[in-house]
Amino acid sequence: MKQTKPGPQAAPAAGAAERGLCYGAASASVHSSVQSQLMSSQLERLLGPVLPTCPLLSGMSAEDLASVVSMMKLRCFRAEEQLCHVGEPAHFFGIVLTGRLKAAIPHGERFRDPDASARSRGATVLQEWRLLQPGEIVGEMALFSGMVRTAEVWALSAGWLATVRFAALDAAPPALAEQLRTALAGVAMQRLAANQADPGRLPKNA
Question: Are 126 and 107 in contact (CB under 8 A)?
Answer without folding.
Answer: yes
